[in-house]
Structures are given as C-alpha cells and as structure tokens.
Design a protein that fits this description.
heterodimer; A: about 290 residues; mainly alpha; two-stranded antiparallel ribbon; 12 helices; 2 strands; globular; B: mainly alpha; ABC transporter involved in vitamin B12 uptake, BtuC; 16 helices; about 75% helix
C-alpha cells in the first residue's frame, strides 16, 4: 500500500515539472492564440543547454539561470522568424509555421548530435521512508517548479509588464489604444513561454536521460497537460501536470510502463472531447476577473 | 469540339495524363529504378491528395493523417500473414476497416475546431502507435514480417513488385478522381463553406458535423489501401515506420507546396517534394538536412505564399482560376 502511495507521490513530483513545461505552452496560447509547435524543440534546447553548462563545470542548479536567459533569447528570435507574420491569421497558418520551425530545429539537432543518449549526472541525497526512496532530484525539481510558478504568478498579476500581457490577452486592440506596444508584448510573451519550456527541459534533464528527439514525447505530454488544465490557463496547466503525474504514478505499479502512453492518450482524447475547456475550467474564472 | 472541351476543363485530362505517365514510363525498358522512384511519388501523391480533402477543402489540419496509412498497412499485413488472405481482398478490407474507424472517430473528434482538432489528431496517431506497440497479435514493438511465400500468388517477388506498383498507381488515380469528384459536388461545396466560415455554413443549412466526419472518413480509405500495398511490398511493418509523424508532416508540406484546396496542387506538390527529397537524400552534403530543408520550405510557403504553387499561378494569371482546378 505504501509502495503505491510512494509511486503516486513520485508521479506528482515529476508531474509538476510537466506542468511547468505546459505553462509555457498555455501562456503563449492564451495570449496570442498560437499553439507553439516548437515547444518540444525548446524543451530539448533547455536539456542541451544544461548539459553543456554542466560540462563546463557549473553546478546543475546554478546553470538553470543562464538556461532561462538563453531560452528567452531564443524565444525572441523564434517569434520574429516564425510567429510574427502569422498572428491573427487562421490557426492553420500558425500551426504550420511553428511546426516548420520545429522541423528545422530538430533536423539541425539530429544533424549535429545524432540520436545518442545524453545524461546530466546530479548528486543530491534523497529521502528514504520505510524502504522507499524519494529521489533528491525529483524533490528539488518539484520545489523549483513551485517557485518558478509562484514567480510567474507574481509577474503576471503584480507587475506592470505582466498586467500588460494580460491586457493584450483579453483585447489586443483596446490594449494598443491604451498605449501598450502590443507587438513587443507578444514577442515578450512568446519568449517567456519558450523560457519556461527550456527551463522545464533543463529540470527534466536532471531527472531522466534524453536525446535530441525527446522533445516530441514531452511536447505531447505538454499537450495532454494543457488540455487537462484548459488551453490558455497557466494555473490549470500546473494542476493538469500534477494530475498527469498522479495518473502515471497510479498506473506504474499495476501495468507495464509501455501502456502508460496508451492510457494517457485515451484520457487526452476523451478530455478533449468531453471537457474542451479543461478539467480545471473553474480556475479560469479567477484568471479573467 | 473535343479540343475546346479539353481547353475549357483541362483538369480531368491533366489527371489522366499524369496517371498514364506513371503507368507507362517505367514499362519503357523495364526501368526498375524509375519504378521505385515513381512508387514513392505515388505514395506521396495519395497521402497529399487525400489530406487535401481535410486541409484544403474543410480547413482542418490533420497532423496525424499517417495513422490511416499505418493502420491500413497493419490490417493488410496481418491478414496476409496470419490468415493467408489474398492481397487484393486484404487491401480492400484494410481500406474499409480504417474508413469505418475514421468515421466513428470523426464524429467524436470533429466536434473540436481549429487548434483543438489538430492536437487531437496528434493524440490519435500517438495513441494508436502506442497501442499497436503493445498489441501482441500484431507483434508489439517488433512488428510483423512477411515470409517470401506471401508473394507466390502474385507470381513471385519480381512480378509481385510490378503488380503492387500498378495497384498503387490505380489507388493514386482513384485519389485524384475522388478529389475532383468531391470538389465538383454539393458535398465539396459544403466542405469549402465549412473551411470559409463554419458557423455561417451551419446557419445556411450545411450539415457540418456529418460532412466533416464524411470527409475525414473518405480521406482515410485510399491512404489505408496505399499503406496496405506499401507495407506488403516492404514485407515488414513496425509501429515506428507505420505511424511516422515525419511522413505525416511531409504530406502537409506537399499539400502546402502545391496549393491547398486545389486538385492539381497536391499532385504537383507531392511529386516535386518527392523529387526534391530524393535529390537531397542522395546528395552527400544534404542527406542529413532533409528535414531542415523541408522545414524551411514549409516556413517560407506559410509566411509568404500561403496559396502554394497553384495559389501563386492563380494570382499571377487570374484567368487560370476557373480553368485549372
């Protein structure tokens, strides 16, 4: 019994990190109605960023700050290359445009790194309870996720720039009329979303080994999480991530791991059809008020 | 009189000419290399043309369109391998099964619009792939291998390859005919109304849900048959090949390159893309950058020429709009 509980707790810890990745995706969707299909590539960028910074001798957790900054810079670039021209056009166009960008990035990545497995070794003591060990890296990742999510919340609700982002999200024309430079705000939001994706990638890299192609799997997880939490709803995304982690933790003791994906996607499609606004639609009310 | 008709409505004649070229060119001197090249082109044309029913006509992006191809391949290879079905029957049944499945799925996920639908199609593809990888009657993640005896009814491997090629060309011809028939029907008009403005279409009496599900199902049948033939030919099927999102993507690039919503566009786009891809793969400097170049191509099309080649032609010479569909 305790084993199942331990598995669930571990699932929740990892799920929080998925939630962080999904927050980046959902922030971009909520503000600019663009599904960022470069999301997976950005997660991988975070992973490789952390890998190279640690090979330089920087401790893994100290390297998170430059990864965040790097993600932000990449985000600005990607915005101007692939997103700016398609904002306000039919969703088909922004989907295809970010998708194309993703192909370019992943193609370059595989050309440079191949599909070899990389791994960032982090030594952090865990906590052992009744013979079950809660890995230190998992605990640390969840704590960091919670703090980043808190910081994002403060930024969006307490700072002028965050308020500008929310203003653009609710009505771009009105925001422009009130003197908000909406194009810059959109670029900033996109970069922020990408920075969140890359830092979550870096955190995932401290937990599991990865390849250039890992992005696809985590991007799909982000979709599942986003849909659970309701597209465009950052707080819901975190809850959705935890819900997904809970589900994974619950399945693992009973079924071969390979079935997890099947169940995740069944849940994904069912939730998408039955609750298109997400399981946590009630959180949205708090957001728009 | 006849010539005037050809000039006035050249599309069916163009389709017929393309199909004839596919059927006859490799026969010239038994050119096996050319045949393999055109076989792949035919597969791309089938995928792109059927995908165009969803993307081009109804305005719904189906990122997981490859699920039909893979599922069709699996049903056929399994029937041939485990139950010794003849290829023709197995391929037909594969098409029918996948089409019915798509109809059922379609009614569910087509309640979603725009981006939500696109996400769901990725989910469907990944879900089916993960399921098949765990499904032991279909060999799980190792897949199914066909023994060489499977080719005996077709007169041995060498002549079987020719038969499969001609069958694929026939499926290609049917795809193009379907695209033409749909475009010039009330059904196609309804789909294009959905693509323009779904709410307005609904208000004007287009049965949007039924039409969308029908389009989704129709766009599944021929790709499933193509998958059946393709994987019968390779004598080997496994989840990663069957549900390869890369191929799904390439089909989208082909549609966008040629021009979404037109009949000739996907044909042209798929053919050009396949040729480009072949050239890149065989050029040493580029063989690693095939995806990068496809991506750049798509990026440029989406941002600067969203109508693709045909869209550009139509804008450059507006009179061709009515003639060249």
């Amino acid at each position: 019994m305790f084993g199942i509980l331990a598995s669930i707790v571990d699932g929740v810890l990892v799920g929080a990190v998925y939630g962080l990745a999904a927050m980046g995706l959902t922030l971009i969707w909520g503000v600019m109605n663009v599904i960022n299909l470069t999301h997976g590539a950005m997660i991988v960028a975070g992973m490789f960023g952390l890998f190279y910074l640690t090979t330089l001798g920087i401790p893994a957790y100290a390297a998170l700050a430059p990864v965040l900054a790097g993600g932000f810079a990449i985000g600005i670039a990607v915005y101007w290359i692939s997103v700016h021209r398609v904002i306000g056009r039919p969703p088909l166009m922004s989907l295809l445009s970010t998708f194309a960008m993703n192909m370019v990035l992943i193609g370059l990545g595989t050309a440079v790194w191949g599909t070899a497995l990389f791994n960032v070794p982090v030594a952090l003591p865990g906590i052992t309870l009744r013979g079950y060990t809660f890995t230190g890296t998992h605990l640390m990742a969840a704590v960091l996720t919670a703090s980043i999510a808190g910081a994002l919340y403060l930024f969006l609700y307490r700072m002028r720039l965050g308020k500008a982002i929310r203003a653009v999200a609710s009505n771009r024309e009105a925001a422009e009329l009130n003197g908000i430079p909406t194009t810059q705000v959109l670029a900033l939001t996109f970069a922020l979303g990408v920075a969140l994706a890359s830092i979550s990638g870096a955190l995932i890299a401290t937990l599991f080994p990865f390849t250039v192609l890992s992005g696809t799997a985590y991007q799909l997880k982000s979709f599942v999480v986003t849909v659970l939490g309701g597209l465009g709803n950052p707080a819901g995304a975190l809850l959705g991530g935890i819900a997904l982690g809970l589900l994974e933790g619950l399945i693992t003791p009973f079924m071969p791991v390979s079935w997890t994906t099947v169940i995740e996607f069944v849940v994904f499609v069912i939730v998408l059809i039955a609750f298109p606004r997400g399981l946590f639609a009630f959180v949205r009310h708090a957001r728009t008020r | 009189m006849r010539a005037a008709e050809v000039v006035r409505r050249p599309t069916p004649w163009l389709i017929a000419a393309a199909v004839l070229a596919f059927a006859l060119l490799p026969l010239q001197g038994n050119d096996v290399g050319l045949r393999e090249d055109l076989l792949l082109a035919a597969v791309y044309i089938i995928l792109a043309t059927n995908l165009n029913l969803m993307i081009g006509y109804a305005g719904y992006v189906n990122f997981g369109n490859i699920v039909f191809f893979g599922l069709g391949g699996y049903v056929c290879v399994w029937l041939v391998n485990a139950h010794a079905w003849p290829l023709f029957a197995a391929a037909l049944l594969a098409g029918a099964v996948v089409s019915v499945l798509a109809l059922c799925f379609g009614f569910g996920i087509l309640r979603l619009r725009g981006a939500y639908f696109a996400l769901a199609t990725i989910g469907v593809n990944e879900g089916v792939k993960a399921f098949v990888a765990n499904f032991s009657p279909w060999g799980g993640s190792t897949g199914i291998y066909l023994s060489i005896t499977a080719y005996q009814p077709l007169g041995g491997p060498a002549s079987a390859l020719w038969t499969i090629y001609f069958l694929l060309v026939a499926v290609m011809a049917l795809s193009l005919a379907l695209s033409y028939a749909v475009k010039n029907s009330k059904f196609g008009l309804g789909l294009r109304a959905i693509g323009q403005n779904e709410d307005a279409a609904l208000v004007l009496g287009v049965p949007t849900r039924r039409y969308k599900a029908m389009a989704y199902s129709a766009s599944a049948f021929l790709p499933a048959m193509a998958g059946a033939l393709f994987f019968f030919k390779s004598a080997f099927i496994q989840p990663d090949d069957a549900y390869d999102l890369v191929l799904s993507t390439e089909a989208i690039v082909a549609v966008m390159l040629g021009g979404q919503g037109t009949i000739v566009g996907p044909l042209l786009g798929a053919f050009l893309y396949e040729e480009l891809r072949g050239t890149l793969l065989t050029t040493k400097a580029f063989s690693n950058f095939q995806l990068v170049i496809a991506g750049l191509l798509l990026l440029v099309i989406v941002q600067f020429v969203p109508g693709g080649l045909m869209g550009w032609v139509h804008r450059r010479w507006p009179r061709t709009k009515r003639i060249l569909e």
